[in-house]
What does this fold into?
Amino acid sequence: MKHNVLWQILLSAVILLLSPLILGLRNLDAVQSAKVLEMYVALIGIILLVPVFQPEQNKDLRDLIQSKYTKISVIYSVRVLAAICIGGLMLLIYMWVMKQGNCEMETGKYFFGVMAEILAFGGLGILAYSLSDNVVIGYMAPAVYYVAAYGGGAKYLKKFYPFGMVTDYDTKYVLFAAGLVCILFGIIIRGKSRR
Amino acid sequence: MFLELWKKECGQVAKSLIYWLYVIVLAVFFVSQLGSLKSHMLKEPKKGQDSYAEYGTMQSNDEREIMRTALSSLAQGIWYEDFTTYPVGFVKHITLSEEEMDEIEGILLETTGMSRDAAGEDIARHFQENNPENSYVPYVAEPKEGLAYEDFLRKMERVSEILGPGSDFTEERMKASAKLPMDYEGAMEAYRDLVEKDGYTGGYLRLFCDYMGIILGILPVFVAATRILRDKRAQMQDLIFARKASSFAIITSRYAAMLCMMMAPVMVLSLAPVVECVTFTKGSKIALDYLAFLKYDLGWLLPTVMVVTALGLFLTEITESALAVLVQGIWWFAAISLGVDKLHGGQYGWNLIPRHNTEINYSGFANGYTQLVYNRIFYVILAIALTAVTILIYEKKRKGHLRRRGKILRNYKRTDEA
It folds into this structure.
């Protein structure tokens, strides 16, 4: 973990720590709290999850690891799980800070909603990365998804609209499932990749 | 040499998957955001029309009205101890220190003659007389007799300083709050501006730039980063380093090729609003500006593409990682959030993504034009500077520096050892 996800953790932490400079974390109503969590905090999903295949980007290194007893897909899965746990922990701390600032929110509901979004953003990136063998495309996919949601909104994305915490909570279950499926396929495809 | 390299680089870009993803995303974004403009293209307004909302709103220049609106919100902010700002599009509740609160209460006293407690009583009386559960009648605080507008503006400027960025007490925000519904005369003026000063197409191309600027504020970085990382992954760097071509020629040809290839679909898409304007105004006597798309594409959008691409080249060349994507992502987020309350246009500032989310408001565009020109020139200069630094880094790498394990931070090699 120290070697592979440290800078992602640091970058995510910096982004969250800097947030009070630009957005309020005190006395927010339920809608405003959802906006901060969905549109800002969930972005750590892209930073934490997308680069999970990066350490084995070098083909020779990947061949070496694939020759070992431990399956490479197991290594990827452990890394994804670690990134999800770290994301969840960061989210919990952030929500705790918001609670201390008297922000309104249903903790369990909001936590699951944002985690679903983190999985969707990260999962989409992981799948795009595994299909293209290109980390930049891995970042591009969730970034374009975010921009599309920001611009087109719910009209086009329907059940895949990522900012539906207050308007349509069912979207969160869809995102959660879609995120898991994307992660699963991403790991399988990457695990079998000979490129 | 440059032309040959440029052609080769164009070929490289055209053969890459990321470029075609760029084109697809651009096209889908265009269709989903702008689609067919014909259904909402403006016709000459008719007297007695139900509403003139499509021609925008009118700004109240009534100084007393502006003062009443702002002072009402100041009095309520003080009484409820709740001041909110929108520094980057997200709401922020401001907590004031005792001294700051005293100072703001002093300003309320000087501008309305009411102390904090008097304001509280006035607000309570208003809402007792006008129960908000029946119908909402906004509270209004009257300015003190003889309060000069300039004096009022100075005091509100101080309130803004205390509250921080994104407060409701800046002159532009106070004016924006005092808006009136559009009437026939105002609608006619907006339409005449569109037809006579904008050549009709200009207004719609500004709208095109507004939307496409959003996506072009991030998309080029993916193409740029991939191009540099591809050389590294294919282990082509040493092969290219050994060539006769200068670092200047390699980087500038690569940069120019990326700009041309990325601007080509933008220019093709920008023809769509022009064609729609031509068909919509067929038979009318409107003198269309057929070449407006060139002015807007090159003047408004190209600087954005230039600086985003240059940042992508620079950061990818220096770190040999995808860091540029994350940095640009953060910049894009900040630029979009900062532009949220400036959608109507005219307030371009130094934002990477200037907003003008309407085909009208020519007067706003004309007023903000000089600032917009400065803004665009600044980003062109920044792009050139970043490209120049990229050339220097590339040259250093060719000479064997900055390459230990591909990370600049681990460069221990001294020049005389090279």
Observations:
- Chain B touches chain A at residues 17-18, 21, 25, 29, 32-33, 82, 84, 87-88, 90-95, 211, 214-215, 218-219, 222, 225-226, 229, 233, 322, 325-326, 329-330, 333-334, 336-337 (CB under 8 Å).
